[in-house]
Amino acid sequence: MWFNNYGAGLLYEVFWVLVIFFFLPKKALTNKIPLWVFTITCALEILQLWHPSVLERIRSYFLGRALIGTSFSWWDFPHYAIGCVIGWLLINWIIKQ
Questions:
Q1: How far apart are CA 31 and CA 95, in angstroms?
Q2: Are 58 and 34 in contact (CB under 8 A)?
Q3: CB of 13 closer than 8 Å to CB of 42
Q4: CB burial class (10 A; 0-12, 13-18, 19+) of residue 87?
Q5: pLDDT of 40-69, one tens digit each?
């Protein structure tokens, strides 16, 4: 139950930090990438409180639900932060290798 509700959000953050770092593998961006990922996913979480027809149409598809979500939860924010910290640690580890 925990993984479905919050653990997936943690992995979602790690995934996006690593994907962006894959395309922009610059040491100067190692702190900025996790911050931007955290900011954007928090904005998407807040956007889940808004239900205009355009967003509802996007959410009617699996990919839309997976990317922008369907329900708001305050407990997602700490998991997003932890996921970004893990992503930050991973990209710093990758740089050192």
A1: 12
A2: no
A3: no
A4: buried
A5: 999 989 988 988 898 899 989 999 888 888
Phi, psi of 24, rounded to the nearest 5 degrees: -130, 70
What is the pTM (predicted TM-score) of this model? 0.86
The pLDDT value recorded for residue 71 is 84
* Single-letter residue type at 75: W
> What one-letter code names the amino acid at 55?
L
Q: What count of Cα atoms within 13 Å lies in the side-chain half-sphere of residue 74?
A: 0
Q: Count of residues for the chain?
A: 97
Between CA 36 and CA 19 the distance in angstroms is 13
DSSP-assigned letters across all residues of 36-83: HHHHHHHHHHHHTT---HHHHHHHTSHHHHHHH-S---TTHHHHHHHH
Cα separation, 64 vs 73, in Å, equals 18
